[in-house]
Amino acid sequence: MPANPPLHPPSCPVPAETPALRTSWWRRLSLILAVVGPGIITSNVDNDAGGITTYSLAGAEFGLRLLWSMLPITGVLILIQEMSARMGAASGKGLAALIREHFGAAVTFYLMIGIVLTNLANTVAEFAGIAAAMELFHIDRHLSVPLAAILVWFIVVKGSYKAVEKVFLGACLFYVAYIITGFLIKPDWPLVTRELLTPRLDFSAPALIMVVGLVGTTIAPWMQFYLQAAVVDKGLTAEDYRIVRWDVILGSVTVSVIAIFIILVCAATLHAHGIRINSAKEAAMALAPLAGRYAAGLFAFGLLNASLFAASILPLSTAYTVCEAFGWESSVDCKFDEAPQFYTLYSLMIIFGAGLVMIPGAPLIPIMYLSQVLNGLVLPIILFFMLRLINDRSVMGGMVNGRLSNVLTLGAAFILSGLSILTVFMAMW
Amino acid sequence: MKNGTLNNNGGVAWFLCDLLDQPVVEREGGSLGRLVDLIADVRDHDPPVTGLVISGPRRSRLYLPWNWVEDLRPGLIRVRSGARDSLSPLELPNGGTFLRKALLDKQIVDTAGAKVVRVNDLQLRQRNGALVLARVDVGLRGLLRRVGLHRIILPTLKWLFGYTLADSLITWRLVQPVGSADILRLKFSQARLSRLHPADLADILADLDRPERDRVFRALDIDTAAEVLEESDPKVQVQLIEQLPAEKASDVLEQMSPSAATDLLQELEEPHAQSLLKEMEPEAAEDVRCLLSHDEETAGGIMTTSFFSQPPHVTVAQTLEAVRKEASDLDVIYYIYVEDQDGHLLGAVNLRELLTSDPNASLESIMERRIVSVSLDAGQADVADLFAKYGLRAIPVIDEDSRIHGVIRFKALLDVVAPHLGR
Questions:
Q1: Shortest alpha-carbon distance between residue B329 and chain A (Å)
Q2: Residue B322 is nearest to which of A7, A100, A232, comparing CB atoms?
Q3: Which CATH architecture has domain B5-137?
Q4: Which of A60, A234, A332, B11 could staple B125 via S-S, CB 3.0–4.6 A?
Q5: CATH of B308-420 given 3.10.580.10, 3.40.50.2000, 3.80.30.20, 3.90.1150.10
Q6: Spatial CA neighbour of B72 closest among B120, B121, B119, B125
Q7: Mind listing the domains of chain A with CATH numbers?
Q8: Which phi and psi angles does A348 have, rounded to 5°?
């Protein structure tokens, strides 16, 4: 602005030499929340209905025998999540966009069909989790599931998703209660430590299926898309990468610690008393006489929060991923006409997800199991694409994968494929 | 698509994907390799294909100039004999762009629809022996053709619903490729970008992936960049300004209205904001520092200091002359505020009164003395109530001694109120 003193006297009330960028309390709060990054959110969504169920079953059926598998699973989780976050920071693009730009339309199309089906199976599992949790509070699923579906749809389309995300995330703090319960039941700590550190290779069918379930629920394909998109969406770049990596590691460790404690609680109570369960709901009911009503209530609440959180993220993440791959407008700030594909996909995911649970006599446990096997089958394919991309200098610049990381990821991908294919064969046999 | 389609210009049109990966055959010589890519010169309005990229031994890429091509259509790519000896290692000629590597499957800006789309295919048209890039396929039909499902899905749709899925093609002249900084610097790119309204451009930037977004933003001139920033969401603003060199960033901030620049600086991390402030012209920086001292949620936080004020004794003619000179740099010109030497607000004259009054009259004699004003620390809701009650375009902001500090534009209020509307 040109200076024109007589016409425009400057009128600043404060000494201009001491500019202070004022931060209101709201800004300060949001800055603190900004520290809670994509890695931690992704990991907490990862502890979903399928997760809590599988961990409970693993503990109830096998006691502490499968506990050791959580250590390598955590390692692989960190390995893969770190790659996703690094790809987001280095390329500034989502995984779906990168795959489309480097592998063409046909490959992307069939991959997206796989992702949509896998995520749909996972969404069904989340709604099944909601149904189970609400039945613990004596609310019929024919009431709770449609209500949850409408709630989830409205939260994202009409409300502020970011605000809701923080509420769910805050609720995740209650998962600390799993850890407290773990201490309250006074397990045999030396034994727990020993079981955690000694790998027991058990090639019996039930044990293998359970391990695949643990892997499938902990490392799901949607997470790679979601985490990378979240890193890009936050505008994190190569300079932020250090913090991003810690965020990812912290998130992965959190998810594993909670998983380990769920296994521990179920092992020390249900397994020790020889109680067989088939679902997280039964785990909660069986826990009441053994670990107290408080523990049972915690399980029910944890299951509900986890299911709702994941049920609101999975359909959204699916719609974003597909629209990103095909260049369709995707934003919850758009009207329906502006982003028809986005809203159609998003709504269909919720309608089918909730609808399948409502079918009388729907086989919820097999669906949940199927979703994890699907995860296990699709994940190696995603890993293959990720490996190709993350070693491409035109995508990653100087942040390409190291040799060790390549070898480990390739090894993990082979083991995961092998395990998944093995289970499918065993299931068919 | 094997027989091509006659388009309205009478030339035959092919889709790029029907040509790619076919063998390139030399007349009387056999295969040279497979067609990997085409290169077109985008400096032309209708970019002609200038060369072929052919697969060579051991995954190498070879270049063959277009003048060797005898026939090129789906099912047949034939070059004159002797072409084999003219193959050279691949190098992108000046102004050339790879059609597959740089455009296919990438984001592109549809300047007519003001949106970002992904390229499913490219349509090439034969014209006087040349092959020119004619249209960009962004539709579902093109996607199905790429996937190979069009032979199943299209007849099924027709049979079941009598529905024909139309091609969705955009003329090349109406799209803007964003894959390379070089192309964005070309004259045609600058012309296409400048045709877009800054608000549309801001939406487009938000929809682009980060590398493309940064590239487009860096290609904009300072004035456009400032306008686009003002129209962008805070999150996008921060990302855009952070990737600019400090010198250009401060230039852009100077061009923005002080209130918008202030809002942006508040979103940045403190040290970065301070260093940008230091880079800015002293006067512009002064305005921003002044605005920074107010809480965002109050009248002081949403006001602009870029308004026009005059002493009471100045005549209408003098004022009009001064307005003429300064108007382009001001946020508020509809009201001229009258203040005394100490900055006390005495009254205001609107532009209509100024234009219809006697040129020799003093402002004092025609000004409105009953002024609706608001105090620096008034809340946004109070400001909104005043606008609603009095139907004003701008409201001055005063302190306890009724000295004027700034003016709140209706537009600034809209920015505050809009998020609460509807959804």
A1: 6
A2: A7
A3: Alpha-Beta Complex (3.90)
A4: B11
A5: 3.10.580.10
A6: B125
A7: 46-393+401-428 (1.20.1740.10)
A8: -60, -40
**Which among B209, B268, B259, B318 is positioned nearest to A330, based on CA atoms?**
B209
Out of A31-45, A211-225, B8-22, least confident range: A31-45
When pLDDT is averaged across residues A7-23 and rounded to a whole number, the result is 44
A412 token code pair: 């993990």
- Chain B contact set for A19 (CB, 8 A): 274, 277, 288-289, 292-293
Where are the domains positioned within chain B?
A: 5-137, 199-292, 308-420
Q: How far apart are the first and last CA of chain B?
A: 45
Are B143 and A109 in contact (CB < 8 Å)? yes
Q: What number does CATH give the domain B199-292? A: 1.25.60.10
Question: Is there a contact between B290 and A4 if contact means CB atoms under 8 Å apart?
Answer: no
**pTM, entire model:** 0.83
Q: Distance (Å) from the C-alpha of residue A358 to the closest C-alpha of chain B?
A: 30
In chain A, pLDDT over 90 holds for what percent of residues?
37
Across the interface, whether the CB atoms of A2 and B329 are under 8 A apart is answered yes
* Closest Cα in chain A, distance from residue B2 (Å): 19
Pairing of strands B107-110, B175-177: antiparallel
Q: Which residue of A has its CA nearest to B292?
A: A21
Spatial distance between the Cα atoms of A414 and B283, rounded to a whole number of angstroms: 64
Residues 6+ apart with CB under 8 A from A226: A42, A45, A313, A317
- CA separation for the pair A383, A291 (Å, rounded): 41
Cross-chain residue pair B266–A21, CB shorter than 8 Å? yes
- State both tokens at A385: 């694409």
Mutate to test the interface with B, among A7, A233, A344 (most CBs of B within 10 A): A7
pLDDT band at A7 (very low <50, low <70, confident <90, very high): very low
- Closest alpha carbon to A39 in A84, A90, A87: A84
Please report the pLDDT score of residue A136 as a whole number. 85
Contact at 8 Å (CB) between A132 and A279?
Answer: yes
- Residue ranges of chain B with per-residue pLDDT less than 70: 1-11, 419, 421-423
Calculate the alpha carbon distances from A259 to A375, B182, B381 in Å: 18, 51, 48
CB count in 10 Å sphere of residue A319 = 26
In the predicted model, what is the mean pLDDT of residues A210-214?
Answer: 86
How does DSSP classify residue A175?
A: G
